[in-house]
Amino acid sequence: MSKERMSDMTSYTHLIALNGTGREQLALHLVATTDAQAAEYRDDVLLRLQNAGVPDVVSWQFVPADEDTLTSVVQLDPYFEQFTFIDDIDEFVNLVSDARSLTALDVAHHLVADLDVDDEQVQHVLYYIYATFLVEYSFVPFSANFIANEHGPFEASVAKINRAYDEYRDGFDFDTKLLGSKMEQTLPAVIERVLTWTRENKVGQFSRSRDTPWSVAYAHGAGTPITDDSILRLHRNEQIA
Q1: Residue ranges in 104-158 assigned as alpha helix (H)
Q2: Contact by Cβ (8 Å): 152, 94
Q3: Which of 51, 81, 125, 184 has its CA 20 to 30 A from that of 162?
């Protein structure tokens, strides 16, 4: 960006960081009165995104304007109407980080849409991917809340796939979110290994064996959470070959 004002006729430079990951189009809106201030804002945001583990996830727009309001920018370019604007850097970074994080739905949609997993088996397969990865790499591969029901481990948000898959198909970006992450190679390898094993075994029955995370939770009643601690302690009793 030039050290000179972008235009002698404008008083403000609107900095807009655009992020398109996830189901909601997010944008950060900041207003600078000098080029030096604009550069400081941009560098600060980029550093915070890097520290949050989500670098290179935004594109920048620099918009000169006579007014300091967001409305004036949208009036200049209706393209921005599709975005939900945030004016707090911390909030934006948190929202972008959340949007970039894999969820149970992201992985479940990947299994159903790209890997032809039967939607009746997706719950069991999803659980085995989560548990296998957690035990082998000691960190959570995606956000999930597994509970114990009568059929085995169950992730409530994934039930949406069974009811209305097409309705929820858009906005789940397994490949985009995985790209550049520390799981880019390891998670697909675990998925492939789990799929190979579960297609050759009765995974639903196996996950409900004694002394497994499911059985311990279910002993306290249907709907009891299956905790990460329980998986780390007991997954060996249901571990795939």
Answers
A1: 104-115, 122-137
A2: no
A3: 184
Q: What is the CA radius of gyration of the chain?
A: 23
**What CA–CA distance (Å, rounded) separates 130 from 142?**
7
> From CA 20, how far away is CA 171, in angstroms rounded?
10
Whole-model pTM: value is: 0.70
Mean pLDDT, rounded, for 98-122: 86
Flag whether pLDDT at 164 surpasses 90: no
SS3 assignment, position 221: coil
Phi, psi for 103 (deg, rounded to 5): -120, 170
Cα(104)–Cα(110) distance, rounded to whole angstroms? Answer: 10
Sequence-ordered strand ranges (E) for 45-172: 59-65, 84-86, 146-149, 152-155
Calpha distance 123→147 (Å, rounded): 11
Helix ranges (H only) for the chain are 35-51, 70-76, 89-100, 104-115, 122-137, 159-169, 174-178, 186-198, 203-206, 213-218, 228-234
The answer to which of 21-25, 26-30, 174-178 has the lowest mean pLDDT is 21-25
Identify the burial level of 89 via C-beta atoms within 10 angstroms of its C-beta, where 0-12 means exposed, 13-18 middle and 19 or more buried.
middle
Amino acid at position 21, single letter:
T
- Taken as a whole, the chain contains a residue count of 241
Higher pLDDT, 96 or 133: 133
3 secondary structure, DSSP code: S
- How would you classify the pairing of strands 152-155 and 59-65? unpaired
**Which pLDDT does position 69 carry in this prediction?**
93
